[in-house]
Amino acid sequence: MRNGTQTQGAAVNDTSRTYDVVVIGAGPVGENVADRTSAAGLSTVIVEGELIGGECSFWACEPSKALLRPVLARADARRVPGLKKAVAGPLDVPAVLAHRDDMVNHWQDEDQVEWLNSVSVDLVRGHGRLDGPRQVVVTTPDGGTVRLGARHVVAVCTGTGAALPDLPRLDEVRPWTSREATSADAVPGRLVVVGGGVVAVEMATAWRALGAEVTMLVRGGGLLSRMEPFAGELVAEGLREAGADVRFGTAVASVAREDGPDGEVRITLADGGQLAADEILFATGRQPRTGDIGLETIGLTPGDWLKVDDTFRVSAVEDGWLYAVGDVNHRALMTHQGKYQARIAGAVIGARVNGRPVDESRWGTHVATADSEAVPQVVFTDPEVAAVGLSAREAERSGRRVKVVDNDFGSVAGAIQYAEGYRGKARMVVDLDRGTLVGVTFVGPGVGELLYSATIAVVSEVPVERLWHAVPAFPTISEVWLRLMEAYRG
């Protein structure tokens, strides 16, 4: 590398090395930070104790969508006249699981390592921990130690892990988290899903369609509580129609696995009721992977989220040498948003180290404005949910004067062509004082592909009156934009 002695992209085994930038965590976020700092001419090393490519590539986005794609394609086909009989049978479970395995390269990361080599980023495999300012000590798989010094920056990109509830002897039950749910090699006969967020509804959708009897236990009164209420309502309807048992206002008091490691799981509910299952998935939130990365050596609390400014410098660390990018900073826990942050962080690190100006203006090159104002998300359920920006509730709480405009997809010709009996709803939230959109939500089959247009409208602050002149093609689902504009004008 550019320090003159490293082999480009090779795994490093030397006991002590110095780089311009040390990145801890080689998921998509860490990879993007490293790519951008290397492209800026900074010698960069990345540290990873698991697979290069991280959670998204091997246990989250890629495998979950591989499981869900045939589920949703079949659901769509069953709504098209002439196709219903052709797709009347069950899914080919071995083929679905084999496709999932192919999509994650059978949990091998050689391609990712090859990519690191191509962008001149060195790799040290092992568990990295901070050891004072600008110092990282890595315990390698063979028990050795590598000390990495950073001339300028250490970037923490360690992401999050599943947050499990505090239940007695839960570890003995061997519960599923998102990792087990996306990598299981067989369909459980009975699956209990605890939680009502994105992971819970997506995995309930997938495993129900693959043949499991699914029961969802949701502490609150609805699904997808951070989104518009109608989104969770329509997803709950879809799950129930698919045969899932969705229960609200329900909490788990205790769990136990009877008759050995392969025995059934006995679940006692807070109201005294009981359930039995073959597996139980806890999809009850995420927590930062900061518990064992040496935060105490620089005066921070292990296990905490790392609070950052809009350029991803950790606010509590003097001299600005520590950055935290992606889920670990708790700004927006989604892969695409983490990669957005990484592109910004890599660029701003390169600018600062190389003495170039930093653009910290709103929507500037070196700030993550979209983290608070235009975060897009798709939930791959039946029906799909796609949303960007603020919900109506969030917009009102922020003090904005807003107008909420709703439209049922039943009035959209493209939706009727897409599927017989198409059910769905669209909402846009308009800031009346500025005349721009601050939030958009779509629910219905195939709406994920509408999201980028909505994201552009929110990010670009396009006046709603100008959107009247953005003509959607007929007959496509995007015609819902015209229906929303008509409703807005009254």
Automatic annotation (TrEMBL):
The UniProt record lists the keyword Hydrolase: no
Keywords for the protein's UniProt record, in alphabetical order: FAD, Flavoprotein, NAD
Family: Belongs to the class-I pyridine nucleotide-disulfide oxidoreductase family.
Names of required cofactors: FAD
Sequence ranges assigned to domain Pyridine nucleotide-disulphide oxidoreductase dimerisation in this UniProt record: 375-481
N-terminal signal peptide: none
Protein name in the entry: NAD(P)/FAD-dependent oxidoreductase
A Pfam family per the record: Pyr_redox_2
Residue span, FAD/NAD(P)-binding domain: 19-337
Organism of derivation: Streptomyces formicae
Keyword Flavoprotein carried by entry: yes
